[in-house]
Amino acid sequence: MTKAIRITENGGPEVMQYVDVEVGDPGPGEARVRHHTVGLNYIDVYFRTGLYPQPLPGGLGMEAAGVVEAVGAGVTHVKPGDRVAYASRPPGAYAEARVMPADSLVKLPDAIDFDQAAAMMLQGMTAQYLLRRTYPVKASDTILIHAAAGGVGLIVCQWAKALGATVIGTVGSDEKADLARAHGCDHPIVYSRENFVERVKAITGGQGVAVVYDSIGKDTFTGSLDCLRRLGMMVNFGNASGPVPQIQTADLVSRGSLFFTRPTLFNYTATREELEATAKDLFDVVANGTVKIEVRQRYALKDVAQAHRDLEGRKTTGSTLLIP
Q: Where are the domains of the chain?
C-alpha cells in the first residue's frame, strides 16, 4: 500500500486525511511515478476548499518530482528509471507514488535536482509564461508583482531583473521586504503600513507600471488597476484573498484603455510542445544561475495540514516542499 492524502469533503486543513491507497499499473498513455519530493502551492488550497471543484473523494497536489517506475502502452517519451517532474492536473501529487497521464511529465536535466524541480515546476513555469508570454517584459519596463516574497514572487523578481526591468513588489513584513530585495526587487512595499498605490505612483513619477502581476485577488484588484499606466496590462493569476469583483469595462476605459487577462498555466502548456518549451526555458535560467529556487520550508507529507495553515496564514516565503 502507498500513503497519500485524500479528501472526502471540502473545508479547512482538517479535511485532509493521510491514508493507505492502492497504486496499480499504468494504463495506456499513463506512467507510475515514485515521488521524491512534492510541491505545495496555493492552488492546492483552492481545490481543498472547493473554490476549484473536483469529484470527491479525491487527491490534492499539482506538482512533484521523482522517478518513473512503469509506463503504459503508447508511452515513448519517458521510460522506467527516468528522473521526471510535473505540474499538472488532475490533483494527486500528495502521495508517495501515483499513476498519472504520462504527457504531463518532463525529463529532468542533470543540473536540476529533485528538490529544485518539485519546488519550481508550477511556480517557475507560471513565472515563465507571465514574464515571457502574457506580457513579455522588456528592459525599459517597470512592473509590479504582489506577494513578492512568495514562491512565484521570488522567481519573478529574479527573472524580471535579469531581463532589465525595474521591479516593484508588495510584501507583508520588513523581513519579507529584505528577502524580496535580495532577489532583485528594487522597491519592496510593505502593504501593512504603506499604501501601495501611492508608493507605485511616487516611484514611477505618476506614470504607473506597464504590468501588474496579481495573485492576491479581491483585496488588491482595484488598487492594482490604479497602479497601471495608460494601455497597461492587469494580469490576475490567483485569488489568495478571494475572487476578484465583477469587471466593468468602464473601469478599464477610465483608467487609460487597460488590458485585463486571467491566465492559467494549464492553458499556456496545453500542448506537448508548449510544455517542453516552457520547462526548458525555466530549466535553463535555473541551471545557469539567473534564477535561484529558494526552498524555505519542508514538511513531512503527513503534516500537510500544518503546511496549509502556514501557507494560508502567510507564514511561508519562497517555495515549500512536502516529503513523502
A: 2-121+272-323, 139-262
State the virtual CA torsion across 314, 125, 203, 226 in degrees, nearest 10.
-80
d(CA 95, CA 108): 20
Q: pLDDT, tens digit, for every residue of 26-46? A: 999 999 999 999 999 999 999
Give how far Cα 209 sits from Cα of 36, 95, 147, 205, 252, Å: 40, 41, 16, 10, 15
pLDDT of residue 246: 86
pLDDT for position 305:
98
The answer on pLDDT for 66 being more than 90 is yes
Q: What is the pTM of this model?
A: 0.90
Residue-wise pLDDT tens digits, 262-277: 999 999 999 999 999 9
Task: Indicate whether 243 pLDDT > 90.
Answer: no
Q: How far is CA 235 from the centre of its chain?
A: 14
* Alpha helices by DSSP H, the chain: 42-49, 114-129, 151-162, 174-182, 196-203, 221-226, 249-254, 265-268, 272-287, 304-312
What whole-number distance in Å separates Cα of residue 43 and Cα of residue 6? 16
Task: Give the 3-state secondary structure of 271-296.
Answer: CHHHHHHHHHHHHHHHHCCCCCCCEE
Residues 6+ apart with CB under 8 A from 237: 126, 130, 213, 214, 215, 262, 263, 264
CATH H superfamily, domain 2-121+272-323: Medium-chain alcohol dehydrogenases, catalytic domain (3.90.180.10)
Q: Kindly indicate whether the domain formed by 139-262 is annotated with CATH number 3.40.50.720.
A: yes
The three cell numbers locating residue 202: 511616487
Assess contact for 231 and 256: CB atoms under 8 A. yes
Is 249 in contact with 225 (CB distance < 8 Å)? no
State the pLDDT confidence band at 299, using cuts at 50, 70 and 90. Answer: very high
| Contact call for residues 62 and 91 (beta carbons, < 8 A) | yes
At 228, list the grid cell. Answer: 497601471
